[in-house]
């Protein structure tokens, strides 16, 4: 947890970009995109103004949870090379400012989403913020190597929220999109942990690479990738799938499975540089993997009214 008394004083007056960085803009992009796909893939149309406002408030809620995460994790962010340049450890924003901003924007985003869309969508957004900021950040992350498995649910809720914005209810299709992100998250982050292991060691974060070692992590990556591939290809035969999505899914999952297999078969006696190259390549592929799957779902939803998408 952040120790405000030991946080360095701001080196300069915080700029707008420093506060925006608290929102984890890269993560926010994924949240916005998957929530938008969830909303547009739903069988109920949403007025463009209502849809824009609703997705905006989902984005603000995601940014708010990112600010709360950075507030709590500032102590370990200061240790890890990957996160030392974040606004709080870099002395650009004070922890109290991040906390106040996160709490205020969380409340505002939930209330406004309830007004713009419906109460169920607002309740799901509130649950997602609390799940990420409290359950994952404050509890799971520093206590169990299953942190990213269970905590990954927080990043998987946006398409469900998007679906609820349109329909006001849950459905199997929304949970299929949830499952895609949920099963993708562990291989994605474990690949990162493989070539950034020293960071988690130094910060005493119990990632699987730290608690169980690299060979076990590689086995887990392969196992989760196999399950993910079955789920992703199977989604192609559902109401949100179609021949376009299925074509993308087959190619992408063949590449993902091959990457996971190469990670699994790595020899621990091989050079660190060789291992780093394989693991980083898989991680980079994982960044495109999810965007392309959800992009294909969006294409299917866009073409379906014209009789070109779906089955």
Automatic annotation (TrEMBL):
Biological or metabolic pathway of the protein = Porphyrin-containing compound metabolism; heme O biosynthesis; heme O from protoheme: step 1/1
Coiled-coil region list: none
Q: Which reaction does it catalyse?
A: heme b + (2E,6E)-farnesyl diphosphate + H2O = Fe(II)-heme o + diphosphate
Q: Name one GO cellular component term.
A: plasma membrane
Q: How does it sit in the membrane?
A: Multi-pass membrane protein
EC top class named in words: transferase
State the EC number(s). 2.5.1.141
Matching InterPro entries, A to Z?
Answer: Protohaem_IX_farnesylTrfase (IPR006369), UbiA_prenyltransferase (IPR000537), UbiA_prenylTrfase_CS (IPR030470), UbiA_sf (IPR044878)
GO annotation terms (biological process): heme O biosynthetic process
Keyword annotations for this protein, in alphabetical order, are: Cell membrane, Heme biosynthesis, Membrane, Transferase, Transmembrane, Transmembrane helix
Membrane-spanning parts: 27-46, 52-72, 119-140, 147-166, 172-195, 221-237, 243-261, 282-303
GO molecular function terms noted in the UniProt entry = protoheme IX farnesyltransferase activity
Compartment annotation = Cell membrane
Matches recorded under Pfam families: UbiA
Subunit annotation: Interacts with CtaA.
Tell me its family.
Belongs to the UbiA prenyltransferase family. Protoheme IX farnesyltransferase subfamily.
Further information: Carbon 2 of the heme B porphyrin ring is defined according to the Fischer nomenclature.
Which function does this protein serve? Converts heme B (protoheme IX) to heme O by substitution of the vinyl group on carbon 2 of heme B porphyrin ring with a hydroxyethyl farnesyl side group.
The name this protein carries in UniProt is Protoheme IX farnesyltransferase
| Species of the source | Sulfitobacter mediterraneus
